[in-house]
Write a structure and sequence with these properties.
The complex is a heterodimer of chains A (200) and B (238). Chain A has 200 residues and is mainly beta. Chain A has helices spanning 16-19, 150-153, 157-161, 164-167; strands spanning 46-51, 53-54, 64-69, 96-100, 109-114, 126-133, 140-146, 171-177, 180-184, 187-188. Chain B contains 3 helices and 11 strands, in the order H-H-E-E-E-E-E-E-E-E-H-E-E-E. The longest helix of chain B has 4 residues, at 30-33. The chains are: A mainly beta (200), B mainly beta (238). Chain B: Keywords: Dioxygenase, Oxidoreductase.
Chain lengths: 200, 238
């Protein structure tokens, strides 16, 4: 290695007008938001992901930023490293979303997306979740799995590598609402229910 | 060689010796917000080798020029600066065509953000947000106003040194980085728990350097800030 990595620093409390400006009603164009399913007719199951980020005291953070990264319903990532052409890319689906928790009265993050397909025969479907906030000096990676995929999760190598008593922290709970399918995924930074974070 | 052949099989791990701990005794809010248990190891798969790509169309004409992209009725106040540098991986290879997002306070130390209640004036002609893409050699360039120090509530008489926030992607979500760029010879660096949270020997990498070559005569002072992201752990043979 010839060069050393630039250290990470916290995103701080005032990221919104730079990273999520339109969501927070600042006059600056936003590149990506919580709407990851820009077309109604996008292949795959339409889902909403909601959740909060809790600190050690159980307080929901009102200044966190969440990013999601996921493959499409066929399990294909929209990226040159995924060349599996037998799984078609879907026009208009990037697989990336970003949402700050400062605009919802309950400090929730809210993403509208499609349920991802499994990326291979071994792993259950999941979404990579990245947490940024004041007081978090390095961004934290976790994974969101879906509560209705129990069969696939029983032999998922990543989930099975997680101590059984902590596995539940990675499972988003499915709920059928009047407006559609919703998964709740709360993130606990500390405490008994501390979310499992990965050294990605 | 097709594009897929050049894709790395994995990225070097985060260099934790160069990073702050999640819980830092000097930076108060880490105590309840930092990850407290060990991170779990995970084998790299396609989810870690891929990430969002932003095309040239992501960046508007004035997005890189913070002295112009927030103008209402005149020029923003403060010391005009040029911030430029190269985004590289650990092997010294440029990271081309990657998005760099920045945000900062104004020349009085005030952020546009609605939650900033510091008693310093807003500048009607300065937003403080921008973005650009690196070029084929990984170079980026912003024009801005030098941000100022501002007080915060971490401890008595706490002041953040002047800094610019930067957010980068690189080729995958593994190379994601959010950091802060500081200015040389700032006396506040010695007292700032956020800067000091990073081990000595590494924190200095977050300090830009003044450059007379980048400085443009009778117009703006130049600062160079190179950024190093995680690189492929096995470099493909040329």
């Amino acid at each position: 290695m010839t060069l050393k990595q630039t250290p990470s620093q916290t995103v701080g409390p005032f990221f919104a007008y730079g990273l999520t400006p339109e969501q927070y009603l600042y006059d600056f164009r936003q590149l990506v938001d919580g709407q990851m399913r820009p077309r109604e007719d996008m292949p795959g199951e339409a889902i909403r992901i909601v959740g909060r980020v809790f600190d050690a005291d159980g307080q929901a953070a009102e200044d966190a930023m969440i990013e999601l990264w996921q493959p499409n319903a066929a399990g294909r990532f929209n990226h040159p490293a995924d060349q599996r052409t037998e799984r078609p890319l879907i026009e208009g689906f990037s697989g990336f979303g970003r949402f700050g928790t400062g605009t919802d009265p309950d400090a929730r993050f809210i993403f509208d997306t499609v349920k991802p397909g499994a990326i291979d025969d071994r792993q259950a479907p999941f979404i990579t979740v990245i947490v940024f906030m004041r007081g978090l000096l390095n961004h934290a990676y976790t994974r969101l799995y879906f509560s209705d995929d129990q069969a696939a999760q029983a032999h998922d190598p990543v989930l099975q590598s997680v101590p059984a008593e902590r596995r539940q922290t990675l499972i988003a709970e499915r709920r059928d609402t009047a407006t559609g399918v919703e998964y709740n995924f709360d993130i606990h930074m500390q405490g008994e229910r501390e979310t499992v974070f990965f050294d990605l | 060689m097709s594009k897929s052949d050049t894709q790395p099989q994995s990225y070097t791990p985060r260099d934790w010796d160069s990073m702050a701990g999640f819980i830092d005794s000097g930076y108060k809010s880490t105590g309840k917000r930092g990850v407290s248990r060990n991170l779990l190891e995970i084998n790299p798969d396609l989810a870690a080798l891929t990430g969002p790509a932003f095309g040239a169309e992501s960046v508007g004409e004035l997005d890189h020029d913070l002295t112009r992209n927030g103008r209402v009725n005149g020029e923003p106040l403060g010391e005009r600066i040029i911030v430029t540098g190269q985004v590289l991986d650990e092997h010294g290879n440029p990271v081309p065509h990657t998005l760099v997002e920045v945000w900062q306070c104004n020349a009085a130390g005030r952020y546009v953000h609605k939650k900033d209640v510091h008693d310093a004036p807003l500048d009607p002609n300065f937003l403080g947000a921008g973005r650009c893409m690196t070029d084929a050699e990984g170079r980026y360039r912003f024009i801005s106003i030098k941000p100022a120090a501002y007080p915060w509530g971490n401890h008595p008489n706490a002041w953040r040194p002047a800094h610019i926030h930067l957010s980068l992607f690189g080729p995958s979500i593994s190379t994601r980085l959010v950091t802060q760029m500081y200015f040389p010879d700032d006396p506040l660096l010695a007292f700032d728990p956020i800067y000091q949270s990073v081990p000595a020997g590494a924190r200095e990498r977050m300090v830009s350097r003044f450059s007379l070559d980048v400085t443009e005569e009778a117009w703006a002072l130049g600062y160079i800030f190179d950024i190093v992201l995680r690189g492929p752990s096995a470099t493909p043979e040329a």
